[in-house]
Amino acid sequence: MSDGSPETRATKWLKDHAIAFTTHSYDYEEQGGTKVSSAKLGVDEHTVVKTLVMEDEAKKPLIVLMHGDKKVSTKALARQIGRKRIDPCQKDVAERHTGYQVGGTSPFGTEKEMPVFVEKTILELPRIFINGGRRGYLVLIESAVLVDVLKAVAVEVAS
Predict the structure, then answer these.
(1) Which is it for the CA torsion 71, 75, 80, 86, positive or negative?
(2) Cα dihedral 102, 155, 43, 159 in deg (nearest 10)
(3) pLDDT band at 20 (very low <50, low <70, confident <90, very high)
(4) Is pLDDT of 4 > 70?
């Protein structure tokens, strides 16, 4: 928090919930994803968690937190959470639900409250890097925050 990084809705939310975090900025590259952010920060891509906005067959939004080096099996996710189908949201829909620009989506301080699902193995990592509410900006937090404060539900959907 001492690198002079601007406050975002996500960092304000973390502070409001008394969550310890450090901020890590990097030069954002369009379509670069976690491969670029992990390389620029010199960290393992597996510890960089992406925030994905998806929707079920009724168009109800949800958030999935996944390791940067893995993909989400939407079929497995639908089965595990009792939905018929799960699909990624369109960019404009995701931005409306979260209030964040795609590429800068954080699960903290979203516009709309949504259920959060987290790949189980993320919770085995002591600390993770996750978006801090804008492009090129990650926060390092303890992974337990995801369950303790966000009430994220663990799933096994990595592929």
Answers:
(1) positive
(2) -80
(3) very high
(4) no
Cβ–Cβ under 8 Å, residues 35 and 159: no
Half-sphere exposure of 29 (CA within 13 A, CB side): 10
Asked if residue 141 lies in contact with residue 88, where contact means CB atoms within 8 angstroms, the answer is: no
The span from the CA of 32 to the CA of 24, in Å, is 16
Tokens of 130: 């996750």
Please answer whether residues 112 and 138 qualify as being in contact, where contact means their C-beta atoms are separated by less than 8 angstroms. Answer: no
Res 7 pLDDT > 60: yes
The alpha carbon dihedral of 25, 53, 145, 149 has a sign of: positive
**For residue range 37-68, what is the model confidence (pLDDT) as tens digits?**
999 999 999 999 999 999 999 999 999 999 99
Q: Which CATH class is domain 9-155?
A: alpha beta
What's the residue count for the chain?
159
Domain boundaries, the chain: 9-155
> Using CA atoms, how far apart are residues 43 and 85, in angstroms rounded to an integer?
34
